[in-house]
Write a structure and sequence with these properties.
single chain; 6 helices; mainly alpha; 83% helix; 133 residues
Length: 133
């Protein structure tokens, strides 16, 4: 497995998350979670560092699935399909279970679940497009 592709995919997902939770849905997310600006800014290095590690793990899992197909079949669309399928079958149901028991709002679920779908699809697409092995 080429490790460079995992880092590139994780960086792409991380940048998407930055845009998602700041410019696109940042204020709505903060309102739904009750996280203040001060809380959001605290321990940023630890939060972002651990987030990136988790994204590397997810990239490795998606890359495993993408690489079950031959290099001639791998491209952005193929990888995005497998990434999205992974989100729909694993990540979103797991988050949904937690949100149901925690009585989280449907608005928060929509923000987070749609991010998971977009981030997994982007990550899979990048991994399929890079086709490094």
């Amino acid at each position: 497995m080429a490790y460079l592709e995992l880092f590139i995919a994780a960086i792409a997902a991380f940048l998407l998350g930055f845009a998602w939770y700041t410019v696109l849905f940042g204020k709505a997310w903060q309102t739904e979670t009750g996280v203040t600006d001060e809380q959001a800014q605290s321990n940023m290095a630890l939060t972002h560092g651990l987030t990136f590690v988790m994204m590397l793990i997810i990239a490795g899992a998606i890359n495993f699935i993408v690489n079950l197909h031959g290099p001639e079949e791998q491209n952005f669309v193929h990888g995005a399909f497998h990434g999205l399928l992974s989100a729909l079958m694993y990540a979103i149901p797991a988050v949904t279970i937690h949100y149901l028991y925690q009585r989280k709002s449907i608005k928060l679920w929509l923000i987070d679940a749609s991010y998971l779908a977009a981030f997994f699809a982007l990550m899979g697409g990048v991994l399929g497009a890079l086709n490094l092995g």
